Amino acid sequence: MKPVPAQFDPVEAMARARHEFGEHGGVNLSIEASTTFTVMHAEVMPEIFQGRRGPDSGGCYLYGRHFNPTVYALGHQLAAMEGAEAGYCTSSGMGAIAAALLQLCGHGDHIVASDTIYGGTYALLNDYLREKSGIVTDFVDISDLAAVERACGNGTRVLYAEGIANPTLKVADIPRLAEIAHRHDAMLVIDNTFSPLILSPLQLGADVVVHSLTKFISGASDIVAGAVLGRTAFIQQLMDLHTGSLMLLGPTMDPHQAFELSLRLPHLALRVAEHSRRAKVFAERMAAQGVPVIYPGLHTHPGHALLSQMAHTDYGCGGVLCIDLETRARADDFMELLQNRYRFGYMAVSLGYFDTLMSCSGASTSSELSAEARDRAGISPGLVRLSIGITGGLEQRWAQLDAALSDVGLIVRST
Ligand code: PLP
To answer: Of 250, 275, 328, 400, which residue is the least packed, with the fewest Cβ within 10 Å?
Structure first.
C-alpha cells in the first residue's frame, strides 16, 4: 500500500495556492469575461498556435475556449487540492470525463472500468464510445483485483473507477489499481466526485483525476461544471490546438462559473466534514437498529478498512449513504414520506447539495445500466441513495428520518 504522503494535506495545499488577486488587488479573483486576448507583439501569435507559448510562457490566454484567466486560476486551485501538477475546468463533469478518455484512447483501444460507476459514464463507455469510436470497455468488479488483472490486456489504455462509487459506495483500492494499470502501460483515471478532500487519488498512484464540480464542490446545486487534473503534459495535450479534446470538442467553462466556484473552495473542507459527520451519525444509528444501510464509514462496510488507510480522516467518509428497501415501491413510499410528510429532503438526483437529496438509483442515475448489470453491481431495485444535507439541526433531521424509517417498518418501536 502506497500511503498518502504525510506532508500532503489538500486543504493546506489549496490555501498555499490561493495567491491570485483581483485586477485591482481585490481579495477575490476578477471575472475575466473576455473571449479573446491581445498579444503585444504580432510574432507571438503564430507561436501560440504552434503550442510553443502558453499563458505562463510569454504567450497569452488566446481565446476563451483555449484558456481564460479566471478558469485558469480555478484550475490551479483544484490542481493544488489534488496535488496535481496541473488542471483545467470544463462545463460539466461529463465534459471532463469524455475529454480525458478521448485524449487517452483512440479508435479500437480498450478500457477496463469498474462495474459500479455513474450511469452517464457507464452509457458513455458502454454505448457511446463503443458505437462512435470503436473504443471498447470491459466492466469488472474492481474489488476483485485478479479479475481486473485478467481484464487488462493488449490495447488497454485506461483503467477507470470512482474513488467511492456511485451509488453502491464501493471503495477503489487506488494504489493496487495503479500498479495493475501501470504494469499494462495503461493510465488509472479516478473520478473523485464523491470524495473531494477525502481521497487524493494522484497521491495514491492514479494518473488522472476527474471531477463533477456540480456536486460537493459547488455545494448549492446551482452550477454544472467539471475538472480534469493530472500531469502538465497531459493537460497541455487536452488544450492542444490540433489534437486537444478540450480545445476541439469545446466543453468550456464560463469564467463567471469559475469565479462562483472559486468562492466555495475555501469552505469545502467545513462542508465535507459536516456532510460526513451527519451521514456517519445517521448510518450508525440506523445500523444499530438493523436498518440495511450502506456507508463506508461503518466498520461493517467491506471498503471501510481500505478507505481508512487511504483517506484524509479529517473529512470523514463522505456525505452519501444508501438504504436498501429491496423493492421500487417501498423505495418510492419511503422517499415520498421523507419529502412530503417529514420535510427531510428532496426527491431529486444529484448530490453534495446543502440539503438532503434522495433518489432510487435503479430508476434514475443508474438506469443506463441493464437490469443484469445493476444486479451484478449490487444495485437493488429498492436502493435509495441519500446525499445527506447540512441544514437544520442534526437531531431535528434524525427525528424526521427515524419517523419515516418507522413508517415503512425498517425501525420497529418497542412498546
Ligand atoms: N461522476 C459522477 C460520480 C457523478 O455522479 C456524475 C453525475 O451525477 C458525473 C460524474 C457527471 O457530472 P455532471 O453532471 O457534472 O456532468
So the answer is: 250
pLDDT tens digits, residue range 25-46?
Answer: 899 999 999 999 999 999 999 9
> 50 Cβ partners below 8 Å, 6+ apart?
none
> Taking the domains of the chain in order of start, what are their residue ranges?
10-266, 268-407
Q: Ligand 1: does its nearest atom lie under 6 Å from the Cβ of 92?
A: yes
Q: What is the pLDDT of residues 236-278, one digit of tens each?
A: 999 999 999 999 999 999 999 999 999 999 999 999 999 999 9
pLDDT band with cut points at 50, 70 and 90 for residue 3:
low
How far does Cα 45 stand from its chain's mean position? 36
**Is the Cβ–Cβ distance between 388 and 216 less than 8 Å?**
no
Whether the CB of 82 sits within 6 Å of ligand 1: no
Does residue 337 have a pLDDT over 90?
Answer: yes
| CB-ligand 1 contact for 212 (6 Å cutoff) | yes
Question: Topology of 268-407 in CATH?
Answer: Aspartate Aminotransferase, domain 1 (3.90.1150)
Q: Is 162 in the pocket of ligand 1 (CB under 6 A)?
A: yes
Burial class (CB in 10 A: 0-12, 13-18, 19+), 407: middle
pLDDT at 4 over 90: no
- DSSP character at residue 141: -
| Ligand 1 contact, 344 CB (< 6 A) | no
CATH architecture of 10-266: 3-Layer(aba) Sandwich (3.40)
Cβ(126) – ligand 1 distance below 6 Å: no
Enclosing H/E stretch for 359: strand 357-360
The predicted pLDDT at position 181 comes to: 98
> What's the 210 CA to ligand 1 centre distance in angstroms?
10
So what's the pLDDT on residue 303?
Answer: 98
384 alpha carbon – ligand 1 mean position (Å):
17
**Are residues 389 and 353 in contact, defined by beta-carbon separation less than 8 angstroms?**
yes
Claim: this prediction has a pTM higher than 0.70: yes
C-alpha of residue 122 to centroid of ligand 1, in Å? 11
Verify whether ligand 1 is closer than 6 Å to residue 356 (CB atom). no
Q: Which residues contact 332 (CB under 8 A, 6 or more apart)?
A: 360
Report whether pLDDT(355) > 60: yes
**For ligand 1, is residue 368 a contact (CB within 6 Å)?**
no
pLDDT tops 90 at residue 173: yes
Which of 89, 118, 320, 366 to mutate for ligand 1's pocket (most ligand atoms within 8 Å of CB)? 118
